[in-house]
Amino acid sequence: MAEGASQIQKQDAPQVEAHHYHNSDYNSKNRYYSFAEQIVETFALSPASVVEIGIGNGFLTRALREAGVRVTAVDFDAALRPDLVASVDALPLESGSHDAALCFQVLEHLPFDRVPAAMRELARVASRWVYISVPDARPSIRFEAARGWSVRKPLRWHLHGNPLRRPREHVFDGQHYWEIGKRATPESAVIAAMSVKGLALERHYRLHPFPYHHFFLFRKTGTTP
To answer: What domains lie within the chain, and their CATH numbers?
Structure first.
């Protein structure tokens, strides 16, 4: 087998075993902060149908289905028992077949040069919205304030990482090929890679309780190639 073909095969193989999504390290408090954001903000889009790419432990799929949303679950790993086994950059779905395409903490598992192709597929299958998240490795500072005589700690602040540290080169760890804030993938480069024809970036933000997850909401503006 040629070296290039061998590399593609490695990239498209599942990176972790199915039980990875059911252990305490994956199902942390921070992860559930992210799940809550995904659920609440997806409900705000009022979709009748969504395609979810990268189902993890299935928490989001179950929550949306229990609320009456029609969910097509897609994952590359057949062991997770998705509705469809496929990669995010080659979705076996009709164009505009779902109101929203959801893709949380998935794109970083692809080499960065494959992100535009993945975004084009998400834009193609969505008729209204594309909502995604990816890791953000940049340092962050957040403050929490509360009022009231019974509050013992009215002000708290949290520092994540060294704000004076220069961006580092990303080293593939067996799962992530890139993250926002690494030397080759600043936020501007990531937004540029995600900005494909037919999508308009409505807003993006780091999740306040868990700034490692950076969310992007795109609105469908027209047909995509």
So the answer is: 3-137+178-220 (3.40.50.150)
Residues linked to residue 177 through DSSP beta bridges, in sequence order:
none
Of residues 157, 160, 168, the one with CA closest to residue 214: 160
The per-residue pLDDT for range 104-131, each reduced to its tens digit, is 999 999 999 999 999 999 999 999 999 9
Instruction: Return contacts of 26-35, CB within 8 angstroms, 24+ apart.
Output: 26/56, 26/57, 27/57, 30/209, 30/210, 30/212, 31/210, 33/207, 33/209, 33/210, 34/104, 34/105, 34/133, 34/207, 34/210, 34/213, 35/59, 35/60, 35/63
- The separation between the first and the last C-alpha atoms of the chain, rounded to the nearest angstrom, is 32
Sign of the CA dihedral running 158, 164, 167, 171: negative
Which residue is it, tokens 């501007």?
188
Single-letter amino acid, residue 40: V
Let me know: does 208 contact 108? Beta carbons within 8 Å: no
Mean pLDDT of the chain: 86
Q: What is the pLDDT of residues 32-68, one digit of tens each?
A: 899 999 999 999 999 999 999 999 889 999 999 999 9
Phi/psi for 108 (5° steps) reads -70, -15
State the DSSP string of 60-88: HHHHHHHTT-EEEEEES-GGG--SEE-BT
> Any residues with CB less than 8 A from the CB of 41 and at least 6 apart, and which?
131, 215, 217
Point out the least confidently predicted range of 66-80, 120-134, 142-156, 201-215: 142-156
